[in-house]
Amino acid sequence: MSIREAAAIVLLILATEVCFGCLLYILNPGGISLETILVGTIVMVGVVGGLSVTLYYLFKRYAHERTLRVAMLTLSPDEQRVLKEILVRKEVRQDDLRRILDMSKSKLSAIVNSLERKGAIHKLRYHKTNILRVTKEFSG
């Protein structure tokens, strides 16, 4: 659900509430005042709007977490370990990561190349090493 869809739902409910309010006022002119209908409509739109926005952000967060979990399942244990370390640090030099994870240069290089091919990280050349960053799809 996008924010545009949530706004459309709120507008639809507003229109529905206004129609029902007008029907109540026309069918029972002495029983319900126009102010009561207006206040009821505003309260309903506020409640539905708040729920729509809350559900939108919860759904967005859940969908991102679920996508990340599924993507992590497709990675090897070593790839997961490297990616998790990059996620924690946001950005790390490849030579520093090699020391942190205690891996050989060749093994880490192969894993980094694999993660880059899979679209999980960006690799930027920096002197004799690389700076590794997680892609937008994998970061929050």
Descriptive account of the structure:
This protein is mainly α. It has helices at 3-27, 34-73, 77-89, 94-101, 105-117; strands at 91-93, 121-126, 129-134. It folds into 2 domains: 3-72; 75-134, Orthogonal Bundle (Arc Repressor Mutant, subunit A). It has 5 helices and 3 strands; from the N terminus they run H-H-H-E-H-H-E-E. A 3-stranded antiparallel β-sheet has the order 1-3-2. The longest helix is centred in the middle third of the chain and has 40 residues, at 34-73. 12% of the residues are buried.
Care to give the gist of this entry?
The chain is mainly α and 140 residues long. The chain has 5 helices and 3 strands.
Based on the model shown, name its key terms:
single chain, 140 residues, mainly alpha, Arc Repressor Mutant, subunit A, 2 domains, 5 helices, 3 strands, rod-shaped
List the helices and strands and how they pair.
Elements (H helix, E strand, L loop, with lengths): L2 H25 L6 H40 L3 H13 L1 E3 H8 L3 H13 L3 E6 L2 E6 L6
Antiparallel strand pairs: 1-3, 2-3
Helix pairs in contact: 1-2, 3-5
Give the overall pLDDT as a whole number: 83
Helix content: over 70%
In this structure, how is the largest beta sheet organized?
Answer: 3 strands, antiparallel
- Topology as H/E string? HHHEHHEE
